[in-house]
Design the sequence.
């Protein structure tokens, strides 16, 4: 009883990460990794021997990461009564889409990053041309995956719209480097660059499970708040130098004079704002009761993570 | 009678371009231009004021061109009994997709082109970052457009698959520059880089009109041959320096030592091969009788054009 009360209290106190949650997170990651690996296994055979494109695609897909987006798809589907791996095609699609965005964001013309998850970025290994094409291919492939799902029109609409927003956010991010930090602009960028896709993950999961429109909308709202919390903490971790262990460069935002929460509100108020977004995410989940426990843990985890 | 016999004869003789055909082509182009213009009119309002992304998207969409791909969508739909502008969303989608491919192909890391249709390429005006993003956005937007159509799952599957193939073809093209020209490789590249999308245009048009699978497959076959003829002639026009009037650089393929038909078979045999593909395209249309007259004219036009 106490546990349920705590979980629904909306507290933004940092999660004493329960062993069972971290264990579940790791198992979910392994499930996604296995599905990605199986899906992309025969890529050389399918795409032919005439370029390193299949290798470039596989390189970035296999770089790993937390796989939070596909896990969100799978878990929101489960919460809506989805069975087995019903939502796996959508989970793979969002990971393809996310990987596309990382490859393009890392390009010299964009954020010019040499490292991603402690390893060389795609263009450092395969060159810019193949990196651009690998990103392009993964974006197209996400829609190939969604086209074969039962609620394809809604899934495609949701992911395509989120992709447009993500790109609009990245455009505003790039274009406003070096300008005085502005809170309204930071909110515009965060909502599009990060929250839109995380919101879409929840929408895709719920839709894959055949959820009613009301539940789809509620979970999308949860995803929106979660996405905002996630991006604020990303800025905080960069500004506080805490992401070094991930193999990313740190303090990059300040060097590039990016539009970030810490640049507008400082570190402490940024953390508080992330906490408020998590509280909002938790509140939205109330109607789902104990079924949504993992989603609550995920929201709390977002502001406790150190990478 | 004579006209119908001629049109179905499979002759690859260069079309004495009939005034009525050229008039129709120009009217169709204007229809597509108007629809594109109306569709993208409010882009700044929709995407917000925080970057030049809407301007970069609109710049390349408005650069014009022959609009052959959307015209193919509209005409194959009409041939299949489609009414009014039923196929227009699919027509706009393929033009978005095609424009995305042009913007990315022109990038410094790819073909490094300064001019497209006689005007500066996207990255020359907006910089590489925005050009990459404008391409990305247009690709995503193509799927937003298709998601709202009645046969969305089939349309999305066809366009996403064609996009993957187009990117695979571009990968093989880029990766094999400077290697000895190889006919099998040229065929692999042409089938993917160009024919896949033109084939998809015909598929999308037929699907938009609610055509039976048999007619969809037949028109896709027509598109495949048309696409191959189109790309062979593109290579021929580049190699013979005839495309200068279009505002493109010429002899670029030879300078970059690209994999092309002229490089493997010479100009005369390349023209003959293009003619054979047009013949194959015409033959495929036989079951459609006089309804497919414009599609026949289009196929003949492809090898008569001088730009």
Sequence:
């Amino acid at each position: 009883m106490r546990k349920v009360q705590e979980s629904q209290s909306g507290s933004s106190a940092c999660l004493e990460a329960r062993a069972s949650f971290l264990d579940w997170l790791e198992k979910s990651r392994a499930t996604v990794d296995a599905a990605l690996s199986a899906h992309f296994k025969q890529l050389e055979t399918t795409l032919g021997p005439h370029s390193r494109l299949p290798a470039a695609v596989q390189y970035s897909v296999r770089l790993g990461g937390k796989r939070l987006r596909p896990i969100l798809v799978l878990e929101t589907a489960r919460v809506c009564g989805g069975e087995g791996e019903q939502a796996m095609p959508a989970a793979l699609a969002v990971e393809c889409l996310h990987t596309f965005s990382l490859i393009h964001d890392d390009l010299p013309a964009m954020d010019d990053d040499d490292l991603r998850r402690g390893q060389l970025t795609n263009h450092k290994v395969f060159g810019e041309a193949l990196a651009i094409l690998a990103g392009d291919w993964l974006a197209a492939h996400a829609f190939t995956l969604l086209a074969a799902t039962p609620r394809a029109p809604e899934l495609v609409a949701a992911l395509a719209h989120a992709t447009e927003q993500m790109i609009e956010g990245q455009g505003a991010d790039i274009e406003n480097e070096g300008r005085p930090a502005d809170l309204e602009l930071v909110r515009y960028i965060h909502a599009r660059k990060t929250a839109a896709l995380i919101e879409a993950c929840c929408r895709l999961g719920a839709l894959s499970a055949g959820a009613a429109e009301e539940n789809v909308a509620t979970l999308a709202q949860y995803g929106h708040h979660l996405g905002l919390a996630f991006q604020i903490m990303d800025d905080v971790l960069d500004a506080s130098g805490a992401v070094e262990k991930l193999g990313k460069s740190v303090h990059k935002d300040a060097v590039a004079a990016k539009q970030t929460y810490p640049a507008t509100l400082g570190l402490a108020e940024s953390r508080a704002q992330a906490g408020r977004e998590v509280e909002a995410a938790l509140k939205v989940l109330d109607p789902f009761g104990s079924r949504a426990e993992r989603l609550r843990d995920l929201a709390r985890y977002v502001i406790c993570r150190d990478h």
In short: Chain B has one domain: 16-304.
